[in-house]
Design a protein that fits this description.
This protein is of the alpha/beta class and 485 residues long. The protein has 16 helices and 16 strands.
Length: 485
């Protein structure tokens, strides 16, 4: 596979080598196709296929280690790309995924410096914070035209900084050259795409491999393994959903006071969903007891947020030796933007993609990529890294930390090269890749009952098909407990 002319196969081989997984396992993996799937000058299809292929290949390697048998894995290029669009419908209704104020706006400012900024207003507190910063009334009544007028009094960079200082989520549009010269980009340069590092042992015996329950050849690769999923938006939930497809018991943990987005109906497939309040001691004790019985602790809050409640990687490893702690962030854990909030759309804007895509199409305004590929590739790469860390724990012992950032995935996407005729790609028919399942979300996205129509998982295993056994359910539908052994 390393010498394959297939770009996704080459990307997978590089990921596999960097994770130091057994090379022979790649011989069972097929990633057919090399065509552009959605219109973009960036190789979003390779990013989708290679990241999802890496997660599936790692699952197959773990299955071989647990059963002594091998199975073939195939990931279709079109299917993987469409899975990474996050398409879903509830009783035939496709939810509106963006608030009316979300999106790009031109700015004013002195000496024509202006520029563009992207607002992310899907959560009311982010929307209202940006409106207050602009001197506008918070709430749903304010329209885009008022925001556009108010931003004429700001330069893009000044508004981005003022918003960051206020803990808000805004990004100024930069060129690739401007981002590459940015102090944070320089701080991230050379960091691994998927960081897999040992957590220093804290007491005698920490280096021992954990016992995994035995499985039969009929069971999926991660059967019997438990994953605590403390994620809320897209990339982290996609990672947990992927692990659930491969047989893990995934318990999604939300805070009772925290908002969610409509996509939770799609990303909760295969999981159980509970509520725990980390603002009080009882909730923290409850979560820690669950962590003590889990192999994986997955979290997607900004760096330092979960650690502030006593759940840093080091603290978890001290209390629960052998655990794998996985973290997803916008800009990573190193550099001046390490603590900055962000989402896929904002990272695309800040790191150069929107201006580069516009330039490729001759557009005068910044242009987004055709899907949230940073989120979905990051989610599948995080699932890959978690399984690679589980492999190391099982074969070497120790506790392990896995880190993936959206900005790091953006740098990886750039490294895959541009697609000369990519903008000419015609969006394919989704119908052959969809499946229906019952869920606990109503047609409006709130609690209720509806048929969820969404893209089934793209990885095909020859012996243990990937599937989601459990319907997507709203937060709080299940108790904060693991299923009986």
């Amino acid at each position: 596979m390393p010498n394959s002319p297939n770009p996704a196969a080459n990307a997978l081989a590089a990921l596999w080598h960097a994770a130091a997984l057994p090379a022979e396992a790649l011989s069972q993996v097929q990633l057919p196709g090399h065509q552009a799937v959605l219109p973009s000058s960036f190789d979003v299809a390779t990013a989708a296929q290679a990241s999802l292929g890496a997660a599936a290949a790692a699952a197959a390697a773990l299955w071989q280690w647990r059963t002594g048998q091998r199975q073939a894995v195939q990931v279709d290029r079109t299917h993987a790309t469409l899975e990474c669009t996050g398409y879903f419908a509830l009783d035939g209704r496709v939810p509106e995924l963006w608030d009316k104020l979300s999106g790009l706006y031109p700015c004013g400012g002195a000496a024509g410096e202006g520029g563009w900024v992207r607002l992310h207003a899907n959560f009311n507190h982010h929307r209202d914070g940006a409106l207050r910063l602009l001197g506008l009334p918070p709430g749903e009544a304010t329209e885009r035209e008022a925001v556009a007028r108010a931003l004429q009094g700001w330069s893009a960079l000044d508004f981005e900084q003022a918003a960051a200082d206020a803990g808000l989520v805004v990004a100024a549009a930069r060129s690739f050259a401007e981002w590459d010269a940015h102090p944070h980009a320089l701080a991230m340069a050379g960091l691994p795409l998927v960081r897999i590092e040992p957590i220093a042992p804290t007491r005698h015996g920490d280096a021992r491999p954990r016992h995994w329950p035995a499985i039969s050849a009929a069971q999926r690769p991660l059967h019997g393994l438990r994953v605590l999923d403390l994620t809320r938006i897209l990339a982290g939930p996609v990672a947990g959903r992927c692990l659930a497809a491969y047989g893990a018991e995934v318990l999604l943990v939300n805070g009772p006071h925290l908002p969610n987005i409509a996509a939770i109906a799609d990303t909760s497939r295969g999981k159980r969903s509970t509520l725990i309040d980390l603002r009080d001691a009882a909730g923290r004790a409850q979560l820690d007891a669950l962590a003590g019985q889990a192999q994986v602790f997955l979290q997607g809050y900004r760096p330092g947020a979960i650690a502030g409640h006593g759940f840093s990687a080091e603290a978890l490893a001290q209390r629960h030796p052998g655990i794998v702690v996985a973290s997803l962030s916008a800009y990573g854990s190193t550099g001046p933007w390490a603590g900055r909030r962000g989402f896929d759309s904002l990272v695309q804007t800040a790191t150069g993609f929107n201006l580069a895509e516009a330039q490729a199409t001759g557009a005068r305004t910044p242009k987004a990529l055709p899907m949230q590929i940073l989120d979905y590739a990051a989610g599948h790469l995080l699932a890959f890294g978690i399984q690679a860390a589980l492999w190391r724990q099982a074969t070497q012992g120790g506790s392990w930390q896995v880190q993936v950032s959206l900005a790091g995935v953006g740098a990886w996407l750039r490294s895959l090269g541009r697609v000369a005729d990519g903008q000419a790609a015609v969006r394919p028919d989704f119908a052959p890749y969809l499946e229906d399942s019952p869920c606990g979300f109503g047609p409006d996205g709130g609690p209720g009952s509806a048929t969820l129509r969404a893209v089934r998982h793209a990885a095909q295993f020859s012996f243990t098909p990937a599937t989601w056994d459990l319907p997507a359910m709203p937060p709080g539908s299940h108790p904060p407990a693991w299923l009986p052994d």
